[in-house]
Amino acid sequence: TTAPTAAPKMRILLLHGYAMNHFLFAADSLLFKKDVKVRARDKSVSLSNNDIAEFVFANGPHHIQALPSETNPDPAPPNPNDPEDKQARAWFMARNNVYELSLIHI
User: Fold this and answer.
1) What's the pTM value of the predicted model, to 2 decimals?
2) For residue range 46-91, what is the model confidence (pLDDT) as tens digits?
3) How far apart are the first and last CA of the chain?
4) In whole angstroms, what is the distance from residue 66 CA to residue 87 CA?
5) Residue 41 pLDDT grade (very low, low, confident, very high; cuts 50, 70, 90)
6) CA 102 to CA 60: how far, in whole Å?
7) What is the per-residue pLDDT across 87-104, written as a single tens digit (0 to 9) for each?
8) Contact in structure between 52 and 10 (CB atoms under 8 Å)
9) DSSP one-letter string for 59-103
10) In this predicted structure, which of 3-12, 14-23, 33-42, 66-75 has the lowest mean pLDDT?
């Protein structure tokens, strides 16, 4: 008899929201990733180390101005020298009433 093989690992694409970036979204998603692994273990899925998925965090291609907040009521315009983990990003931009779609970036 042959030993059962582990199920193939899924790849789950996670896209951040407007004015976020993949660094912030990955940090905000830690509980979600843990919950996915716990639920798989609870369902008695035959998995090695409960490592069922690779979570892929993509970064929007457009560097935009951050949204105002209590701690930053007047955010500065985007600066190309900002560290990547501090940049507000978006998946599309509206220019001249035309949306520049960026799903091709993925």
Assistant:
1) 0.69
2) 444 456 778 899 999 899 999 999 999 999 999 989 999 999 999 8
3) 43
4) 8
5) low
6) 8
7) 999 988 877 666 665 556
8) yes
9) --SEEEPPPP-SS-SSPPPP-TTS-GGG-EEES-EEETTEEE--G
10) 33-42
CB 63 within 8 A of CB 24: no
Longest CA–CA span in the chain (Å) reads: 67
Closest CA to 61 of 6, 32, 104: 104
User: Do you know the residue count of the chain?
Assistant: 106
Structure tokens given for 76: 């500065």
Whole-number Cα distances in Å, 41 to 36, 37, 59, 74: 9, 6, 30, 46
- Going 37 to 41 to 45 to 48, the CA torsion angle's sign is positive
